[in-house]
Amino acid sequence: MITVNQDSTLKNLQQELRALACIGLAGLIALGILLSIIWQRAEAIQWTLQSAVIWGFIMVSSLRRLDLVRPKQESPLYKNLGWGNRITLFRSWLIAATAGFLFQPWPDGPLLSWLPGMIYFAGAILDRVDGYVARRSGQSSLFGIELDTVADAIGLAVASLLAVGYGQAHWSFLLMGLAYYAFHAGIYWRKKQNLPVYALPPAMHRRVWAGFQMGYLVVALWPLFYPPLTLIGGFAFMLPALIGFVIDWLIVSGRINRQAANTDRRFYQLTVFSQAIFQPLLRITIVLLLAISILRSGLPPMANTGIVGFSFIASAGFILTSLAILLGIAGRYFALLLIGLLGWYYLNNPMYYLDYLLFCCVIWSLLLGSGRFSLWQEDDRWLNRYDGA
Fold first, then answer.
1. Residue ranges of domains in the chain
2. To 10 degrees, what angle do helices 115-127 and 82-99 make?
3. At what angle do helices 82-99 and 41-64 cross, to 10 degrees?
4. Cα gap 350→356, rounded to integer Å
5. pLDDT in tens, 230-288
6. Residue 309: pLDDT over 70
7. S-S: 217 plus which of 52, 159, 236, 318, CB 3.0-4.6 Å?
8. CA-CA distances (angstroms) from residue 272 to 46, 144, 332?
9. What average pLDDT is seen over the chain?
10. SS3 83
11. How far apart are alpha carbons 238 and 348 in whole angstroms?
12. Cβ within 8 Å of residue 146, ≥6 positions away
């Protein structure tokens, strides 16, 4: 039951949100006018309309959740949205601006072609900021948690559609963008049918993988790398996440009883197998496939660029990343570095089937970590500590 004071506070929150909605709409219109000058007028008008629709949807969704601007359900409402939620709303505005480019050709020009990816990149950066600001300001809220999830889901769907539309990702990558909505639609249907919905146990990897998905889409929306590299990268990033969604659905629907002792033991055994066998074998496979790929293209690598320094840097980079991954020294950091080196390498060398497998293995090592028999796993500890904060 909302008291008189709480009712007044809720009205103040509504006024603040409506003011931010108007400011956001004005910003989209202003940016649309600028785009009509430096881009095509018809495309700029379409951009403004599409972005305004998405922004309106986000605002309506936020307005319905304002009663959650509190730390706990039984706690009183905060007097204002707080800077953490304001940053999340600005991130949502950037996602709406990215959505304006949907169903249109990739903008031409050395600057315009970077615009969709850079706007989405700015939103991805803020995704790592809003929660931290909310905690530091002492105003974490249920509203922020839900709004952050909604923004992540819309952003992933928008960026997936855009990457597929630009030919940077295979159409199957849309499954990744739609998985969240399918998952929650299934939960809604079960509740409507009075079927039980079981709680998901906490898992550090979910947010980590979501961050990597956003990272992939940022790069896919930059005019830097092109198919087949971006297509293979999309498949590699998508496959583990989709498997995770399927397992989570089996848990919430009760087909897997996560509380049962034998089920818990099997998950533990699977984790041990992955860390002790699969992830170390993945490291060895990466080094072997990388050696085969480089030897097939000839030494020194990237000599056909005509710049000797490139070959020297590439050789040193491949040696450094291979040793670090093999020995398990900050394996995720160096897997990310190797992904960049391979993207650079394949700009001047063809990709064969073994190269497809190599690229997938490096990405899976990035997602999973280096596992057992690693000399230094500070990267794993940092990711887990960050996501658990």
1. 4-180, 261-388
2. 160
3. 150
4. 11
5. 999 999 999 999 999 999 999 999 999 988 889 989 999 999 999 999 999 999 999 99
6. no
7. 159
8. 52, 35, 19
9. 90
10. helix
11. 26
12. 65, 68
